Amino acid sequence: MCNLYQTAKSADLVAQLFREPLRDLTGNEPWPEDVYPDRTAPIVRHDGDELAVARARWGMPTPPMYLKTARDPG
């Protein structure tokens, strides 16, 4: 499967893109270089009144008519 997505190296670099400080909730684990659906990756989200970088399972949901199981594999 071809991968078109890569992560920035740190929350500081992501904060530069948004031009405002971000709260880093990713912990001290290194960020993965490549991002694949159904795996964790750093995302930017609203956390109250500020932006935060957190790790979350990444991907688009599968339309219900194409799901073969109760769990959506992404």
UniProtKB/TrEMBL annotation:
Q: What is this protein called?
A: SOS response-associated peptidase
Q: Which InterPro entries match?
A: SRAP-like
